[in-house]
Amino acid sequence: xFRADITAAxxxxxxxxNRAHTIVSTLWKEQAQxxxxxxxxxxxxxxxxxxxxxxxxxxxxxxxxxxxDMYDNIFCIVDLHAITVPYEAGDLLERKMDMAxxxxxxxxxxxxxxxxxQSDVREHSELAWILGTQAMFGELRRMTQFKEKSGGQxxxxxxxxxxxxxxxxxxxxxxAEKVPVxxxxxxxxxxxxxxxxxxxxxxxxxxxxxxxxxxxxGARVMSLDDPFSKMSKSNPNEGSRVExxxxxxxxxxxxxxxxxxxxxxxxxxxxxxPAVSNLINIYSLFARxxxxxxxxxxxxxxxxxxxxxxxxxxxxxxxxxQERITELDESPDEVYRLIxxxxxxxxAIARPKMERVRHVTGLTFTNS
Length: 368
Ligand code: TYM
What we know:
This protein is mainly alpha-helical. 56% of the residues lie in helices and 7% in strands. Helix 6 packs parallel to helix 15, helix 11 runs antiparallel to helix 14 and helix 12 packs across helix 14. The site of ligand 1 has 25 residues, from strand 3, helix 3 and helix 9.
């Protein structure tokens, strides 16, 4: 079987020998090309920052899972992005493992999707350097995420500044057509498009220009303590977000304490009732019913009843994921194996693409 060929390929010092690598690459390349011919390719990434919350889940992860059969999927745990802010090495390793378990437990299926660690595929860094020469200082300085993350800090790393360039490299290295993300990433995808169009104009058509895939509902889950700011890992108030690893009692407590608006009606109105509207969105996404169905269910009832049920729905929605995480806690070797297999499949696409980039940019120096 195809898969058996891959695992049988000899490995030298953790990396495969050239010949074995060529065989593996060719096999995966053929498969990748087959898939690419039938289904459009999607690429998306998530940082292993710890504290993964229902905003990440509803805005990104669950859509990746739901759409797995529609696309040729590549999902990446972006550890190189995570190191653009101060961190500890041991901590990062734990968070990478945690994120791999969360994604697998949420339903990312290695049979249908490539799942891998960004830093395992060296081509991401190489392409990011080259794209950095095509990105403008002024356009990076305007990035909202950079302004937010660097605001108030004495020293800001060059890595944080170049973050969106690495993100562009992630996406176009695989010629992804679609990038399923939450609303906050829209600006980065637009920048990716600009850089790609510029590169193609300078060096000839080399990359596919990707499009964002941002859903109408769920793309911007707001904080439980402030309906005007998005739910985020960086909010120091843990009560502002429900994390995927929260216990049922933590979830209930956080939802009970979530801010609401004046009045008592459970009605969707982003202007008059931003906090309740956010909770209604969360309810409708977890229950997989429309916003108006939620309103109908709670007609004549108050916030108390609504929040109690919402807590139950979120607890039940997360339960199967949490159970699978517990199972994976028992088998870390399996997680390492799956992620390494993802690395091989990603490399098989990234390597030839990067060779082409080296060629068109005049970097390849050989007489063959
Ligand atoms: P990250 O790790 O911050 O977030 C992962 C995904 O979660 C979405 N998200 C939200 N969606 C709805 N409501 C929220 N409150 C919320 N908070 C986060 C994000 O939009 C994202 O889709 N730069 C990316 C990581 C990245 C990437 C890529 C994404 C690196 N390379 C290439 C796509 C393609 C990020 O910060 O993700």
